[in-house]
Structures are given as structure tokens and as C-alpha cells.
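Schema walk-through. Below, the input block comes first and the output block second. Nothing else is stored per chain. Lengths vary across the set, and this one has 226 residues.
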Amino acid sequence: MALRDHDLDMIKMSKCLFNRYPLMDHFAKKNIFCVIVSRLQRFFPEDYRFMPDSFLLPDEARDLEIHMRQFPAQTFIAKPSRGRGGDGIILLKRFTDLPKAAFHHEFLVQRYLESPLILAKKKFDCRLYVMITGVDQVEAFLCDEGLARFCTTNYRRPDQNNIKNLYMHLTNFSLNKNSTRFQAPGEKFKEDRKSSKQLFSTILKTLKKAGRDTEGLLAQVRSIAQ
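--- output ---
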């Protein structure tokens, strides 16, 4: 990522800090990030087992078509490489259901994980933050707190009746806040266990109460961050 002349001048004068690293924007592009992780997976397969089957379109469209024919029961999720906020994301079971844009623009298609961990009958994800203080002798710090984002429709395995229900399958906050079932965080956010956005620490308490190994979970999170 190139710096603008104004930003570069400000840094040289020590008048500001710049919280970006060159080429860091590559990690925000789904296709490029997938290529990076796939390469690491070849060298460190045990450390990158979390990576699902992935296909970069349009270049790997033929490979995807063959794979989907071999595994007709699987569900796939297609995302524009530069998309955000859930825009342009679809779930599909047939190759012919791919949008035309996927054959002309960069798309990432991955096997959809149909058995996610469910809380309050809803799918959710956790957003955690890592601060990297340098790339020459990398040092990273994992924030103790994070956020959990919930879908606004009770989860069911994808089928032809619900595969287009994005409120069931996508956790994007910018999408779910438009749902009539969206529950905004209240004043007691730290103790809130019902809203569509909760603290990561709250999720850990809920999981621990349900008998889950939260220490093991945190160990995995730290391992990925490292």
C-alpha cells in the first residue's frame, strides 16, 4: 500500500503515527488473503486446518464446477473479493446458481461450514483484535476484549427453503441491523446476553456456563494470532 505524499511528509516530521503497513491492504482482499493462507497451508498443514475448500474465480471456475459435481450435497458461499458488509454474498448448492459477476470479477467461493457453534439458536462470529507493533522481529498483542456478532434469525442447515435467508447465515452487523429482529445493545452492554452484538467476554462466560472448554478456545485463538 503506497502512502500519500501528505501522509509521508507528516511521518517524516514525526507529527503523526501511521497505523498501516505496506501491502497490508492485501489482507483485506479476500482472494489475495486466500492465496496467502493456502500457500502457508501447504507448508504447515496442521496449523491451517481451519481453511475450508476454496476456489478463486474466475480462474478456478472449472475446478469449482468439477468439485460441486463430486459433492452435490455440499453448500458453498460466494463472496466478491473486494466486498464488505455482506454485499454480494450468496449461498449456493449448484454451480449454475453462481452470479454472472463471478465470471467477470474476482470472487472467492468456499465450502460453507454447515455446523457452526450456536448460541440462543443463532449463528454468531467473534471479532478479536491483534496489534502488531513491528514486522522486523514481529511482536503482536492480542486484545483481552472483542465483539460477537449474531444473526437475527434462528439457524438451520441450509436448504432450498432458507438458502437465501441472509439473516440466518451471515453475521455481518451492517446487514443484520436492518432486520426487524435486530436487538440493539442496551445501556448494560457488559452484562447483555440478548442483543445482536455482545462482548467476547460475555460469550466466554456463556460458553463456560454451558460446559465448554473456554481455556482451550483461548489457547487456539492465541495460537492463530501468533
